[in-house]
Amino acid sequence: MSLPNAVFPRGILEVIRPTPPSRNGVSAAYPPRQSKPSLPSRIAVIGNYLPRQCGIATFTTDLCSAISSEYGAARLLALPVNDTEQGYDYPPRVRWSLAQDNLRSYQEAAEFLNFNNIDMVCLQHEYGIFGGTAGSHILHLLRGLKMPVVTTLHTVLREPNPDQRIVMEEIAELSDRLIVMSELSSQFLQEIFKVPVSKIDMVPHGVPDLPFLDPNFYKERFGVEGKAVLLTFGLLSPNKGIENVIQALPQILSKHKNVVYMVAGATHPHVLRREGDKYRTHLHAVVKEVGVESNVIFHNRFVSPEEMVEFIGAADIYITPYRHEAQVVSGTLAYALGAGKAIISTPYWHAIELLDDRRGALVPFQNPGAIAQKTIELLDTPAIRHAMRKRAYLFAREMVWKRVAQGYMESFAHVRSDRMHTPQVQFSARVNFESEDPLPPLKLNHLHRLTDDTGMLQHSIFTTPKYGEGYTTDDNARALVFAVLVKQQGKELDSETSFTLGSSFRYLAFLEHAFNPAKGRFRNFLGYDRQWSEDEGSEDCHGRALWGLGTVLGRSRDLGLRCAAGRLFEFSLPPAMEFRSPRAWAYTLLGIHEYLHSFPGDRDAQKIRLALAQRLLEMYESIQRPNWKWFEDVLAYGNARLPQAMLQVGSAVADHRMVSAGLEALDWLLKTQHCETNGHFVPIGSQGFYHQNGEKARFDQQPLEAAGAVSACLEAYRITSDTRWRGEAWTAFNWFLGANDLQLPLYDATTGGCRDGLHPDRANENQGAESTLSFLMALLEMRSLQESEKMGTQA
Prior knowledge:
Layout: E1 43-46, H1 55-71, E2 76-79, E3 81-82, E4 98-99, H2 103-115, E5 120-125, H3 137-144, E6 149-153, H4 162-174, E7 177-180, H5 183-191, E8 200-202, H6 216-219, E9 228-233, H7 242-255, E10 259-264, H8 269-275, H9 278-290, E11 296-299, H10 305-314, E12 317-320, H11 331-338, E13 342-345, H12 349-354, E14 361-362, H13 368-380, H14 382-395, H15 401-421, H16 445-450, E15 460-461, E16 464-465, E17 471-472, H17 473-489, H18 502-514, E18 515-516, E19 521-522, E20 525-526, H19 539-555, H20 559-572, H21 582-598, H22 603-623, E21 634-635, H23 641-652, H24 656-672, E22 690-691, H25 703-720, H26 723-737, E23 757-758, E24 763-764, H27 769-790
Parallel strand pairs: 1-2, 1-5, 3-4, 5-6, 6-7, 7-8, 9-10, 9-12, 10-11, 12-13, 13-14
Antiparallel strand pairs: 15-16, 17-20, 18-19, 21-22, 23-24
Helix pairs in contact: 1-15, 2-3, 7-9, 7-13, 17-18, 17-19, 17-27, 18-20, 19-20, 19-21, 21-22, 21-23, 22-23, 22-24, 23-24, 23-25, 25-26, 25-27, 26-27
């Protein structure tokens, strides 16, 4: 028999979310190589939930509590299924409830989960709790989800009917992984439903972490002190076989007169609605018939988890006398094992597995005599009974809820790892286009929305500016570059969404305010309360500010703007010689390149340009290897700006080594950032980057990378006239439009904004300044390329 892929985690799971660089500049230290993916931070568990009275509700509640206790509760949601119109009085963790037979409710639940950016859905599947034929309504929810799904299968049928087979096969297809609680369930999935073993994880049914106590500790609670207690608990239904224990009692009592049999649990709600309390009435009749009224105690109520501990604790022998073998999971049996009880059971599937190795005793189905004989044997020989208890208790230490929570998070982490390497395309949103489709219009609604009287706000929640995170010099420098380019190209914009002429002055004023003369450096983060959070920002932030200032001086015709920028450029350029970040060098070189268009004779700027470019070249030549043509030992963020700077300077000063290095590095970068199967652009992900001799992080993919690739490729095209680079620019730009791993557009045609990145399963729907400016700047460059080609000249 093939075993599931992950039997059960040993040791505490240690998966830590890597810290990506600040999206607006960074320290030069990169995160360590990512050997494990981050854990999901927003988890939704779908399944019945207490106070609904059923085994799935108890399981789901216990699972949520265990995950919450082990990993934190802040972002754990539950979505139960209501089988009555009035529903239940759920706790705060329940954010949404499904109406069992209302198909629209399942579709709306999918929309709710997608809208709330849930990272992971964990479905608790049992055919009977969902509406539709064989519970098929749940498929409508699963089909609508954008995030990964891990499904726990509480029932796996050996002989499913056609409808049950169809439902299970589609659940298996729509789920990233399947969790089972027994080896037999895994075997059925593989042999009957053709699910590959690599997709199956086995995590046992959880049990409370109870102490190993003498049963007498709890007996007084139930008025059975001095008695030998037999126990069966759980929701009553005819398949439980309780009558067989009752019929065994006279034989047991002939040897042990102090025996009582406790039956704890309400009648199953579905049975109660369908046929009333017929089964319980039958049991009372059997008790009377065999004359054991004083030795059988019925507790006719739903047993809470807290009370369940006391019931099990009081038992000397726990009995599960089920009538049929076809039960792959029994929560009550798992609980009894976890409490270290002596157990007698019929040989249904789960019992055969759990009670192996003398952890319990098996008796034939429908055989009161065998039950009586085994009970007498265990009561006669306390040593055998206690040894059985100890074996059960020690075995079940791997089943306590803490360990089960770790097992689930291990499975979730496995899914995220798989998604990182094999993205899940959202087929409903596939984008079909030629490589050079007409460009979208230049629409600035969202950029205008992000700009206030102070400058460019850095973040948004969806398309709404997020005031709480304030402003950055990084974004205002980018916005200044873009504003100058828009003005230079003379774009006619709709008055309602116009990028006002004052925008350039506003962004430049922000840079002037950001400059700290005492330090000779730009500060970066400004709160919405107009308070700076530091005396100086990162080197990369300073480099981007110089890029913005240089663009004003090289391209703007407004004298006031140029004079203000010139003064600030003069003060802020010399500190760049002290920088150690290669990206700061690159951004500074882009700014000097622009500046020298207007002031080509500035010898100080020429010296700084040559010195920084030489450093970049020397770094490249010292690090590059036959299989690693790059400037550093890691591909991190803003990668393409390094070869772009090399190309600009090398071309301007006629340095063949620089041009050759720039082209070689850009060629290697593009090959590294291409999908091997489809050829589309795949930027290095921010969740771990790509360390030499390490593994490429596929996600999260950032718009910043695509914009940089567009600029660098167009620079290579201008220098070489090789149309290959023009094609590469289109490939990188089309990433924004949907030519990406998920075939989802990052560009928002409604707002003109850009989504903040590509996750393994969906786009980040927030539209921040960096992402939006990255798209708009790339769009502006591609429009300039098309316009220049229309005029028969190369841009």
